[in-house]
## 1
Amino acid sequence: MKLAVFLGVCVLALGSAFMGYYLITAAQMEKLEIELQTAINNQQVLENTIKQQNEQIKKALEQAKKTAQQIQTLNTQYSVSQAQVTKLRNKFANFNLEGMALTDPVVLEGKVNRASARVVENLTTITNPEQFDEEITDNTATTN
């Protein structure tokens, strides 16, 4: 009888130990499942962030290309404008205005008027006064 009681207590202790082990293992598995799901969610967030950043980088590179092209265009226009300015300066340097004013003021007046008209025409062509004409949008907020 003592042996039966001893064996009963041992079986009960062994059953309790197994139940404890099973509960601990189940809790660990549940914890690991939660950690796995968190890792999956974090990976998805990371992938979305990487996609967004890649798109932003592409847009920034495209904008940089456009800016470089605009700078190149402006540099070309600047070079052309400088050549025209130099040409006009050289034209004015060739005239002896004092001598012409003393000898024949009427001829000088006609030449100055024609030259002034050409200068205004050339400056209008060079500066293109319509280059900054853009539609202005009203972005002001109304206040109460």
## 2
Amino acid sequence: MSEASSGPVGARVAAAAPLLQAGLERAARAAGLRVAAGGETATIGLRSPNAGPAHTAVDVCADATHVTITLATVPDPETWSRLLALLHELLDHSS
């Protein structure tokens, strides 16, 4: 994926509720992802179940109890690393 070589892996974040949108954006940034704006290209789509698929290489759908990952292509090592960090952010219930 060419995006990884030009900077941090990008994530398109989508949620119906503004507070949920902000929480998903915080998780993405904490995982070292760049939150994509507008029509900017993103490798990872991070969304709530009520938002449709982002049509990205990696689609991550998160709710209160589950995270579902759908792959359109095999991610490069940097994307895998950021995806693992994102999962830690989304599933960490210690705080």
## 3
Amino acid sequence: MKKMLMFLILSASFTILSAQHNWSAFKLGFFDPQATDAGFILGYQGGKYVDEFVDIGWSIDWFNKNYVDKALADQFSQFSPQISGEVNELRAKTNLHDIPVMFNITAYFDAGRKLEAFASAAVGAEVLLVFYRNYQNPEDDELKGAFDFSWRLSGGLVYELGRRSELLLELGYHSSAPSWEFEVTDDLGRKRVFERKYDMSGIMMRAGVKIYY
């Protein structure tokens, strides 16, 4: 049901974007999700104006982080206390690629000469590609994909640079928590199911350039 809802949202966004004034924005900034430390995030957003105050569009972002999942390492240590903490930290090493694809609606407000304020809301699908360590052979990498519904609220300022270009500053909050479950067996033959949940909720600060065509 969740996958069908995400598909319908994204399909509707591309269907709606069939007329009006076109624009593209390229963004760079910092993202600070709960699951990892903060890092750079790259983004692209395309849209069309419904009228002079509202536009609709879609966006795609990419966030990458290498880190040790401390919570998972602690669970491994509880499951196999005879194993050293260094081995369990190696087992919890993670390289994730977070790719949210979203439908956006934005309202604009006059804030002065060549300056506009905006408020935006977005919903969509979160795709998480995770390279993680094999429990039995922690030197080996494995790949897993996780999915979830996501939403975002943001606001900021847009400054007119030229006839077809603008500078934008954006502050927002993003929410999503992809997860999956996996089973491991220790050296004694005991089995346990672990859940890997990635809380990708957090603050996002970005700057970018908006181009009309």
## 4
Amino acid sequence: MKHINLKIEGDHESGFFSIFLVEIERNEMSIPIFLTSEQTNLGLEDPEEPFEPIMELLNILLDSGFSIHQTIEIVNGDESDEHLEFVQNFNNKIDKGWVSEIQPINIKFSNVEDPENSNIELESVGGSLYTIYTETNDMSPVEMANKLKIIFSPK
């Protein structure tokens, strides 16, 4: 099985974890994915589902045969018992991929006529979908897609 390192950054305050950045890394190549405020707010709707904003991304990786080594980085935290328990439960966690062989991840642009002004859509063979909104990233959508292809490569 192939491993993907996933660094998840966010704030943990008043019992809620709000994710604003996910960094995907494999074979010393990484790419940051900045979440939109709408995505971040999904994690604030239910404290029992703090990873809701990236759940489909996690499903795509696991469905495609990648094991995920997840680390949590709290940028702003209240150091409450809930905060410390959250880090203890979810930092340095490994989830095994659901299949033994790497499956292809479909990477496409939301606007095929104009990829440079497009978001990136990821889809697993199992049908999980996740949209990477590219407006806040320093890389162009084409650069991001090319980097993702290398990171998700079966080699």
